[in-house]
Design goal:
Gyrase A, domain 2; 2 domains
Amino acid sequence: MPTDALKISVAGENSLIVYLSTRTEPLIAAKIQRMTEALRINLKSCLIDLIPSYASILVIYNPLLTDHFAVSKSIYAAAQLADKADERALDTTAGVLVKLPVYYDVESGPDLAGLAANAGLTVEQVIAIHQSVEYRVYAIGFAPGFAYLGEVDERIAASRLATPRQRVPKGAVAIADRQTAVYPAVSPGGWNLIGLCPTLMFDPNTEPSMPVKTGDRVVFEAINRQAFIDLGGDLNCFEDQK
C-alpha cells in the first residue's frame, strides 16, 4: 500500500476520510486496522472518533486542538508504518474471534430453500458452506450493531431481493452478494434470510454494547431448534409477515 496510493478527502469542517484501496480483501482490512490503531495513539486527545470501513477510515477530530494539516500528517505517518511492515507480518487473523450460534432452517430462514435451489445446492450444503468460513468484520453501519461480514463463499453468494421486506426480525442471519450479517433489530431489509441468531448484536445497556467490532472475525455455528429457544430465541418473529 504505497502512501502515494492514498487519497485523503475533506469530509467536514473537522473530519477527513482516507481511502486505502478500491478493493475489499483481508490484507486491506488488516492495514485499515493497523492504521486505525496508529492514529488512535498519534492523535490522542485531539481525536473525537475513528470510523474504519472496508477500505477507508473516517477521522473526526477536535478543531480546537488540531487542524486538517496536522491530521493529514498523522495519516501519512500511520500509512508509512503500515508500509514498513512486510505483508506477511500484517496479521490477517488479527482481532477477536467471535462465535455466533445460528438456527438454520426453512422455519427460521424463509429464503434458505430458494437460495439453495438457485445455487444448485441442498439446504444442508448451504448451511455447511455458510458456517465453514471465518468472516472479517469489515464495517459496522446501517444500524447500530449491523456488522458487514465478508466474504461469503461464492457458491452461496446471492443478489439482494427484488422487493425488500418491510420488516426483517431481530437476529435474522442474511446474505447479500458476498456479504453476510445479523440484523441487530427489527428493520426493513432486502437481504436473503437463512436463519436466526439468538445473540444480541446491540445492547445500549451493556459495555461493550456490541459483541463484535471492526477488525474482529466471526464464525457461525449451527444449533438446533431447542437450543435456539433455550438461548432466548423467538420463533414467532415471522408471524406478522404471513
